[in-house]
Amino acid sequence: MHRSLSMNIQHRFFSQHKQTRVNQVLAKRVILEPCDVFINHRSMDTKRTVATLLYDHLCRLGFHPFLDNKNMKPGDKLFDKINSAILQCKVGLAVISPRYCESYFCLHELALLMECKKKVIPIFCDIKPSQLRVIKNKKWTLENHQRFKFALDEAKNTVGLTFNSSEGNFSDIVTSASDIIIKSLIELEDEEQMQHPDLPAAL
Questions:
Q1: Which of 80, 104, 123, 195 is the most buried (most CB within 10 A)?
Q2: For the segment 13-35, what is each residue's pLDDT rounded down to a tens digit?
Q3: How is the beta sheet containing 91-96 ordered, strand by strand?
Q4: What percentage of residues in the chain have a pLDDT greater than 70?
Q5: Dihedrals φ, ψ of 94, to 5°?
């Protein structure tokens, strides 16, 4: 089922070699890993738009993205579930919006992605990278402020996508981000195979 869904889309975007690599990545991820892509976002800003559209699109392609309201159920421990998904994922997608930096959870997730040295693809939605700053919140420890500043500095210095929600087309940003994610997963799979040549390739 995963393969048939993804092949229809992949014919439009990838060469035969890349299509084969996508299928290999998908086959391995479906069996071994419950989370390919962690979607980091500010709920009140982008949950009903970019974040959910990306989640649904990646699911249709056969991947397993993580989005809090889609993957968490009553009784789950919030930090345990989120931290576990970040540790398992291969790629982080940070949908950074105007009120993103006000959220402890957004910044914690971004910091953990950076600390785990995950590949992070930022989408600057209605905000410029130069506008990213850690706010002064008395409830946050000095260590939190330092972690969050480091994470935002890393995001600022990472080439990402920009999107203006008042002018742009949501389908365009979803397609662009998905293409980048898939290419990133293929590259990571190839790197892993080169580092461990004795391991069998995904079928």
A1: 123
A2: 455 555 665 565 555 444 344 68
A3: 65-66, 37-41, 91-96, 119-125, 161-163
A4: 79
A5: -100, 110
